[in-house]
Amino acid sequence: MKITLVKKILADGSPCAKCADVQAKLNSNHQMQFINSTEIADERDSNSPGMLLAAKYQVDRAPFFIVEKENREPQIYTVYLKFVKEVLNGAEQEGELTEIMENNQDLDFL
Q1: Which pLDDT band, with edges at 50, 70 and 90, does 105 fall under?
Q2: In the CATH hierarchy, which fold is given to the domain comprising 2-103?
Q3: DSSP code of 33?
Q4: What's the pTM value of the predicted model, to 2 decimals?
């Protein structure tokens, strides 16, 4: 699974307040470890990587998350709490299970 966070820079050059709030939540909840890349949608540059992603996926809100899973269409999340509930909670549990299996060689999958 690959997760991309897209944050916005406003036309006046200032960072998006909501983007900063979500970034702070990701940091304080130790969730940035699950984000593979961060792209910037700069309103002053329609060719910035984040603006191109926003156009490609027809997203007009920031921040947003692109979740890519093997053999599936990318999923777009524009709501942080929904993203956490549907994506990160599963990733955290999967990480915990992997850690348990790695630390306990006597366990095996059924």
Answers
A1: low
A2: Glutaredoxin (3.40.30)
A3: G
A4: 0.81
